[in-house]
Design brief:
By secondary structure, the chain is an alpha+beta fold. The chain is built from twelve helices and 19 strands. The protein folds into three domains: 88 residues, Rossmann fold; 66 residues, ATP-grasp fold, A domain (Dna Ligase, domain 1); 191 residues, ATP-grasp fold, B domain (D-amino Acid Aminotransferase, Chain A, domain 1, 2-Layer Sandwich), CATH 3.30.470.20. Bound molecules: adenosine monophosphate. The site of adenosine monophosphate (AMP) has 13 residues, from strand 6 and strand 14.
Length: 393
């Protein structure tokens, strides 16, 4: 039986978010709507989720000692990772000591880098992925490219949003690809994964919810990435029944293997009737922001309910929907946004500005959301709205 207390009193139910970006901000709001006390943590101040949380802390989350000290002083009922770059060994220890980690500390540890989840899915579960190899040195990297063949995709094992990712078309582009990967990884230079290029027809995120009554699938989300970074997503992605069934089977196998309760973003490539696993986040997914307009319960509301042990009897999908990112490019410590009247002038269009306090280079600062009569119309509306937003840096 779930009981929820009152924030800032002795009955409080505390949720500690590790990572306070735009996805964490929406998890914080969803949890607060249910009366949960939210503590937002990140390595920089004034992060988006901190702006809506009851309390916030700035700590180096990869420092196990700092993470443990904070958890022991706050004693949260739920520890909810929002990013990969956390001391997951500490999460494993804390879970063994009785703390609840969403969905499980093992899931956080396995998905901390691309290697853990890839080996688990491919070797332990026997699920189809692209061909792959890992390399630590330039020599090993070149050998891996030659072994896998061209084109192949190289990514730092610790990276997201396309940072350090590139496609290698021939031997002459191996050198530049190695340099890009070494500059783009989250922890600087290091190990890379080389993947065979999958010439997919389309790719999806299958949001998969593990909750107290079993597994529920959200309608598939199609998306378009540029240089490995999400630009737009839409829902529901049309799929044949057989392909969707296979995608759901794969997602269920992998999420069952990881265990726990919460939402998982399972990324899959579809080619003909074939489904190929790409990667997975044991938490809300950026492409899943479309669910803020497409469903009665967004991926964030679903995550909060699952974490709190509450039922999810149904998810109502409202029809063709889309999201389109608002990017900022340049440098600023006080971005602002104009022409919002034009961005929001159309029916069934919405906007989220994340409140990110700093732009250095290219950064996702907001997202436009639309419903339409068709997926094409929803995409066009979301794109037009996003392009109307004037980002002033
Ligand atoms: P990831 O960060 O692994 O999700 O990669 C970001 C995006 O890059 C994916 O959503 C695909 O659009 C593209 N991508 C990644 N890996 C491959 C691959 N092996 N073959 C083709 N495209 C890929």
């Amino acid at each position: 039986m779930t009981t929820i207390g009152t924030p800032n009193t002795t009955s409080q139910t505390k949720l500690m978010l590790l990572g306070s970006g735009e996805l964490g901000k929406e998890v914080a709001i969803a949890a607060q709507r249910l009366g949960v006390e939210v503590i937002a943590v990140d390595r920089y101040e004034n992060a988006p989720a901190m702006q809506v949380a009851h309390k916030s802390y700035t700590i180096p989350m990869q420092d196990g000692g700092a993470l443990r000290a904070l958890v022991e002083s706050e004693r949260p009922d739920h520890i909810v990772p929002e990013i990969e770059a956390i001391s997951t060994d500490t999460l494993v220890e804390l879970e063994a000591e009785g703390y609840s980690v969403t969905p499980t500390a093992r899931a956080a540890k396995l998905t901390m880098d691309r290697e853990g989840i890839r080996k688990f899915v491919s070797n332990d579960l026997g699920i189809k992925t692209s061909e792959y190899a890992f390399a630590d040195t330039k020599e090993d990297f070149e050998e891996a490219c030659l072994q896998i063949g061209f084109p192949c995709v190289v990514k730092p094992i610790m990276s997201s949003s396309g940072k350090g990712q590139s496609t290698v078309h021939d031997e002459s582009s191996m050198g530049p690809a190695w340099s890009i990967a070494q500059d783009g990884g989250r922890t600087g230079a290091g190990r890379v994964i080389v993947e065979g290029f999958v010439d997919f027809d389309y790719e999806i995120t299958l949001l998969t919810l593990r909750h107290r009554d079993g597994t529920t699938f959200v309608d598939p989300i199609g998306h378009r990435q540029e240089d490995g970074d999400y630009q737009e997503s839409w829902q529901p992605q049309p799929m044949t029944k057989a392909t969707l069934t296979e995608a759901q089977r794969m997602a269920k196998t992998v999420t069952e293997g990881l265990g726990g309760h919460g939402i998982f973003g399972v990324e899959l490539f579809i080619k003909g009737e074939e489904v190929i696993f790409s990667e997975l986040s044991p938490r809300p997914h950026d492409t899943g922001m479309v669910t803020m307009i497409s469903q009665n319960l967004s991926q964030f509301a679903l995550h909060a309910r699952a974490i709190l042990g509450l039922p999810i009897p149904n998810i109502r999908q409202y029809g063709p929907s889309a999201s389109h990112v608002v990017m900022g490019k340049g440098s600023s410590k006080s971005p602002s946004f104009g022409n919002l009247e034009s961005a929001l002038e159309e029916d069934d269009t919405d906007l989220r500005l994340f409140g990110k306090p700093e732009v250095k280079g290219e950064r996702r600062l907001g997202v436009c959301l639309s419903l339409g009569a068709s997926i094409d119309e929803a995409r066009e509306k979301a794109e037009k709205a996003a392009n109307s937003v004037e980002v002033r840096l």
